[in-house]
Write a structure and sequence with these properties.
Elements: H1 2-11, H2 14-25, H3 34-39, H4 44-58, H5 73-95, H6 109-121, H7 124-153, H8 158-184, H9 186-207, H10 222-271
Helix pairs in contact: 2-10, 4-8, 5-7, 5-10, 7-8, 7-10, 8-10, 9-10
Length: 272
């Protein structure tokens, strides 16, 4: 059941849908389904360890009489949304930076610099380096956020503490596989760069005329199109990385709503 649930979540993620869409455009639909490959994370040995961990976690509430404190769900949501917004802004600024329109004539030093930059950006290496750097920053920020959210929920009800323990176990078990997955994602990015390059070369061949590198990164250019794809891919990866944290945040909100209902019911009973 755990494997099926993982496959369902991965299959419905933005990242998987995006990669599947690119594969279809590039004629790679015969490849093994992305979601199916990503769902094969839990080995039989891991399943045994998980079963033991779940049994221990299920007995956790009975081991303590502490009811816990009310968790400030709004503070949890504010923290999560703040980190998400910061990472979204960082990705957008680094991957799709605004470009200053170039003067039409005469040719200036700015034109020469833009052409040199465009030729450099036509290669995969600088994009891969940028992706690795952003991926590392994303990994560190999301990892720290996950720990912080767990700490906030660990002061709550037994059910929330149980969820915190489960999340910690899942992170430990799937961490190595998840890291391996993220290092394989840029392969799709390299194919996408080649896709846009081929599209551009075909257009130039059909239309004729001179291929001006200065226009590659300008709106409508093939590198600009690739940069948008890279941004979308990284934002989809961010959403996938945040998925467990969003689950914790939702649990905190549900616990708060349940606490409010119980409080209202108690006050209503006392008034009668």
């Amino acid at each position: 059941m755990e494997g099926l649930d993982l496959q369902h979540r991965l299959g419905s993620s933005r990242l998987v849908r995006l990669l599947q869409e690119w594969a279809q455009v590039d004629g790679e639909s015969a490849r093994q389904d992305v979601a199916e490959r990503l769902s094969h994370w839990l080995s039989a040995f891991d399943a045994v360890k998980l079963d033991g961990a779940l049994q221990a976690i299920e007995s956790y509430p009975s081991q303590t009489k502490l009811r816990g404190q009310a968790v400030d769900a709004s503070a949890v949501a504010q923290l999560v949304n703040q980190v998400k917004a910061e990472l979204t802004a960082l990705i957008t600024a680094k991957v799709t930076p605004p470009h200053t329109p170039l003067p039409s004539s005469p040719r200036t030093l700015l034109h020469t610099l833009e052409e040199d930059d465009a030729r450099a950006e036509s290669k995969y290496a600088p994009h891969y380096q940028r992706y690795q750097s952003l991926q590392k920053q994303m990994e560190n920020a999301v990892g720290a956020l996950r720990v912080q959210v767990r700490q906030m929920l660990s002061k709550g009800s037994p059910a929330l503490r149980q969820l915190v323990a489960l999340d910690a176990v899942m992170e430990q078990m799937l961490g190595a596989r998840e890291q391996k997955l993220w290092t394989s994602v840029p392969v799709y990015l390299e194919r996408r760069l080649e896709h846009w390059r081929q599209q551009h070369e075909q257009t130039v061949a059909v239309q004729g005329g001179e291929d001006d590198p200065i226009r590659w990164r300008q709106p409508g250019g093939w590198i600009a199109a690739f940069q948008r794809d890279m941004r979308d891919m990284m934002l989809a990866e961010l959403h996938q990385r945040l998925h467990p944290i969003l689950g914790l945040m939702e649990a905190a909100q549900n616990a708060g709503n349940e606490l409010n209902k119980n409080s209202e019911h108690s006050e209503s009973s006392e008034s009668q």
